[in-house]
Amino acid sequence: MKIRSFLEDIKQGIVLIEYFPPDHPEKVLYELLTYFKDKNIRPLLIDIRDTLHVFLQQLKLQGIDIDAEGYPTIKEGGKVKIGKIIGSINVFEDFEHHLGKYLQLCRDVPDEIKKVTIVLGINKFLDQINQNYSIVERYFEVIGRRHLEDYDRLVFIFINVAASSQYFLKSFEEYSDYVVRVTKGGEFILQKIPGGET
Question: Are 95 and 135 in contact (CB under 8 A)?
């Protein structure tokens, strides 16, 4: 499935984007940013432990250069600062403190920007917390569900399947409205839609 046709069909919800290391998730990021740029939307980027930097470097190796400096970005750990940094979170071990800081930062972000959020490197965050179902549930409440009641909102979460436990992966799949798998060509295989699997 072509990414753009998928994006044209959805208006709100949480989209889990699954990939393996040999795949090209950076191409999906490029397609997302290009699509929303054409719609005059600048997504909010959540960059966990320099995943944005890694994706941009992979795109450069393919001859694609993205100017990410204008994108509002919440930086979670890592050292490479890319984008218009609107806040940083460096505490991972205390989950409640981490989410509290995230919510505090998000309150200051205009609704227009939060309409589309892209989370990069979620597996690097999950590495820091225990396998606790209530934590996954709370994460989804904060990152997506709480805001979906207020206005149409899209949240894209990139997750490296090979670097994630089956427990977290299944939990994320359950809480997401859409689950897509990235192919080696950088396209989508749609695996779940609202109401069940495809």
Answer: yes
